[in-house]
TrEMBL record:
Source organism of the structure: Methylobacterium aquaticum
Family: Belongs to the UbiA prenyltransferase family.
Bilayer-spanning residue ranges: 39-60, 66-90, 111-132, 138-155, 164-183, 189-210, 231-250, 256-274, 295-312
Known EC number: 2.5.1.39
Cofactor(s) of this protein: Mg(2+)
Cell compartment(s), UniProt: Cell inner membrane; Membrane
Record protein name field: 4-hydroxybenzoate octaprenyltransferase
Amino acid sequence: MSPAPDRPVADAVTGHWVDRHAPEVVRPYLRLARIERPIGWWLLLLPCWWSAALAAIAAGQPGPNLWHLALFLIGAVAMRGAGSTYNDIADRDLDARVERTRLRPLPSGRLRVRHALIFLVVQALVGLAVLLQFNRTAILVGIASLAPVAIYPFMKRVMPVPQAVLGLAFAWGALMGWVALFGRLDAPAYWLYAGAIAWVIGYDTIYAVQDIEDDEIAGIKSSARFFGTRVRLAVAGCFLVCVLFIGLALSGAGAGPIGLAGLALFAGHLAWQVGRLDPRDGAEALRLFRANRDAGLILFCGLALDAIWQGLM
């Protein structure tokens, strides 16, 4: 079977440089790593940055560790690419049956599985190089994150809400910033992780609204299918739990008014998303899903400014 025509993948950023300027020989690899869909690495990165800022508050430091923030950025891009590559290898047959995913490099025939496997190893090695810059406990915690990453692609075949496993993986950074600074995990890190899991389930349920009909035909399970007509209520519940747990994390770490204001603005953004969500409008669901980058940055800025203020005072 000849490869499908080279066209941008659904939900890619319109006019992204990968689709416009990248050489054709490397374009499938960049798409496999979701470079033209940067929202993924943002959502993987933000819990790391939250955790680094929260740890700085608890430690009385004037702001999060900038070196750690840079490492988390590199690691998020590399490991999001590795995770997406692994997911596409596992899901290539399912992706071929869903309209939004059938033009991905593997189901479209533009890339062979063995080449994707080599690319997966390269990205994982970059992630490992980043991880080795941290303390021993952080390295062990980071390695443990591979467990939910490994099983997630198969959960959408058996679990009614596979987003719960995705949450375990994508929220892992909420532990990493804390352990990178303290060399241990404490209650605020666990509360932040729990809140981030609820956030992931909420925003990925919004994302899954796009595929309800195709997922049903292909036999793919998702939280959007599971909640059905109650999807807005379910997302609202996830976001409420998220805010409550993160509030407990902030309280335990000694966050001040600036951090709490950041949390309040974050909560307001999540409430706005729930108000805008329409289960019949896939295009709006994609916009709301992407808006979670801004929500996460609002919370990070609040925590970082709180750490700076308290550290200087």
